[in-house]
Amino acid sequence: MAATKERKAHGILAQAGLEPYQPAAGEEYMNEAQREHFRKILETWRNQLREEVDRTVGHLKEEANNHADPVDRAAQEEEFAIELRTRDRERKLIKKIEKTLEAIERDDFGYCDSCGIEIGIQRLEARPTADLCIDCKSLAEIREKQMRGA
Fold it and tell me: Start and end of every Zinc finger DksA/TraR C4-type domain (predicted)?
């Protein structure tokens, strides 16, 4: 089980051909090497999502059959609806990845949008598009729950 968690936690890193970033003693936060590390992660992730979109388009074209049986037709439509919902989420994620890549280019990556402190290398490797530190994100989630009345 531990091996599975480690593989999942470093999946996008492995796909990018990277190891978890190990900052040197006294290394400045979000220096060029760190920004390049995250740029590679984000570009790999974006490319992977784009390939998935292309596969889905091909799949929808190939599998679009007009089934005579209403149950078969309904099952196919439900399958397509689920795929399209997933691709829509991925489309939104691609936009967020591109926004994050722009932040890297502006030298504005790795710092909390709310309080301005460092988000941290480990958190960014776990969620490269994070724009809030863990404390601000926790507070935002608490506020969201309160607004929903949960």
Answer: 108-140
Classified as helix, coil or strand, 58 is: helix
Assess if residue 58 is contained within a domain. yes
**Number of domains, the chain:** 1
Is 134 among the annotated ligand-binding positions?
Answer: no
Residue 8's pLDDT is what? 44
CATH number at residue 126: 1.20.120.910
Query: Looking at the domain assignment, is residue 6 inside a domain?
Result: no
The answer to whether 115 is a known ligand-binding residue is: yes
The stretch 83-112 carries a mean pLDDT of 94
Q: Which domain holds residue 125?
A: 11-17+28-149
Residue 58 annotated as lining a ligand binding site: no
Taking the model in full, what pTM does it have? 0.79
Residue 26 CA: distances (Å) to CA of 14, 22, 56, 69: 26, 12, 46, 68
